Amino acid sequence: MAGLTVAVAGLDVVSPVIIPAGPGGFGTELRERYDLTALGAFTAKTITPHARIGNPPPRLVDTGFGLINSIGLQNPGIVAFLDTVYPTLLPFPTHLFLSIAGETVNEFEDMARTLAGVEGFDLLELNLSCPNVEASCGVIGANPQAVHDVVVAVRRAFPDRPVAAKLPFEVPDVAGVVRACEQAGVDVLALFNCPHAARFDVATGKPFLARVTGGFSGPALKPLTLAKILAVRSLTHLPIIGMGGAWTADDVLEFRCAGADLVGMGLHTLQDPAEVCTIAHEFATGSS
Amino acid sequence: MTDVVVRQMSFSTDRSLLLLTVDWRAAARPGQFAMLKVGDWPVVPRPFSICAQDREAGTTSFLIRRRGLLWDQLLRLQPGATVQIKGPLGNGFPELPAPLLVGGGCGVAPLLFVAATRPVAGFYAGVASAAEQAFLAPLLPAGTVVTVKPQFVTDAFLASRSAGPVFACGPSSMLRVLANRYRGGPIWVSLEERMACGEGLCKGCPVRRREGSVALVCSDGPVFPEGEVSWTWQD
């Protein structure tokens, strides 16, 4: 395997393999326990304006070739995150991306303005698509006008570093949303958040998850994600972080065939972050 | 995850329980668990309490109930096969001498490990069937009080009027009964929850603390002082 260093939105990325927002938590534990230097980037779990305790358990159900999660953006809120968590991350051993979600344009804008004054991270991801919250951030990403309004406001408040938009898997007007991202000044597309999914216990007839549906991830999702990335690739030259089903080094190459520049490995991070770092290292050094 | 070789497998006669022994030397404390997986499917590993360790033989054992997608994979295994493991994980029970042990079902697994490491003041085990009772009998220390459904292990334990610190593991309904009715000393409960990473990353295994915060069963537990645990989830 040849070494594969990628330039994305002005960042030199040592490997196309990244950890997307969610499965790696905020990065505190990962940074202590694993050598992350060969990762292209790490995205910290999404933070919100106020603390969220997340969804009641059960939050997870297995599907065999994947996992349905219903975490619900559990996080301490941006103020506590910056006071207590963020200082433990610095300096981060690879590119550090932060992810934010708000319920309104103003919430996104306020968080972006706060983070514009915070050094030590390289890219701001807008989570426009969490499948596990009832508030509007779950649907912003499906609405071109809403995406446009959020991104314009964030760009105004956060002008100096790249911004990524994480879109929902289920978007009726993909072309419209991608165009809105381009026109409003998005630098990178993060494709995609987990699609909605459910499982039921046949013994009881009841859903496994306390909130019935959750977001689906894992190898079973890969061919669906690839088709969607391919469709977006034909619409835009924006860099794409592909995520949703990448498990092996070959999967990373397959995502790149479909048009992704960087590839997120979420579920594999849950099994063992060391294995994801090893795959990232293979790309970074050309060894296999 | 690390590849480990299956040394021994034994099933209860009704094939509801499996005692799986693997060549794995990682030093674990009683109450800790490991994530286990068999090959590529199911992709998400499962958490199991460590039931026993034989330092000389270099083996570790897990007590596994028939449940979920992993079971069919386990049935296909033979000694000599390879499984994947990550751990030991979690905090384990405190280093208290002579605790009372109360376990329900596979909840006896971490308590067996406790009983192998120190003298205990009593062991109460609740099982689902006579087949399970027969299967577990050789593993339980002499003097263990065993109840079989529809008897409740909590009834047997509370009727004994024992006093002292308790380590308990089992269904949450059992743990709640203990928490509500036992007044003889402090209780530590080992909680069970669905997990994916087992190490505090994914926030998939929450438990509500009485003061309102959210702890994670995998990395803050699985063992908690009973007084810290809120048995209901309120927003």
Automatic annotation (TrEMBL), chain B:
Signal peptide (from-to): none
Which is one GO molecular function term here?
2 iron, 2 sulfur cluster binding
Query: Tell me, what's a Pfam family for it?
Result: DHODB_Fe-S_bind
Domain spans labelled FAD-binding FR-type: 1-95
What is the protein's given name? NAD-dependent dihydroorotate dehydrogenase B electron transfer subunit
Name a single GO biological process: pyrimidine nucleotide biosynthetic process
What superkingdom does the record give? Bacteria
| Cofactors, names only | FAD; [2Fe-2S] cluster
Q: Which PANTHER family did the record assign?
A: DIHYDROOROTATE DEHYDROGENASE B (NAD(+)), ELECTRON TRANSFER SUBUNIT, DIHYDROOROTATE DEHYDROGENASE B (NAD(+)), ELECTRON TRANSFER SUBUNIT-RELATED
The UniProt similarity line reads: Belongs to the PyrK family.
Q: Which residues take part in binding FAD?
A: R46, P47, F48, S49, L63, I64, R65
* Cofactor binding notes: Binds 1 FAD per subunit.
Binding-site residues, [2Fe-2S] cluster: C197, C202, C205, C218
Matches recorded under PROSITE patterns: FAD_FR
Which keywords does UniProt give here? Answer: 2Fe-2S, Electron transport, FAD, Flavoprotein, Iron, Iron-sulfur, Metal-binding, Transport
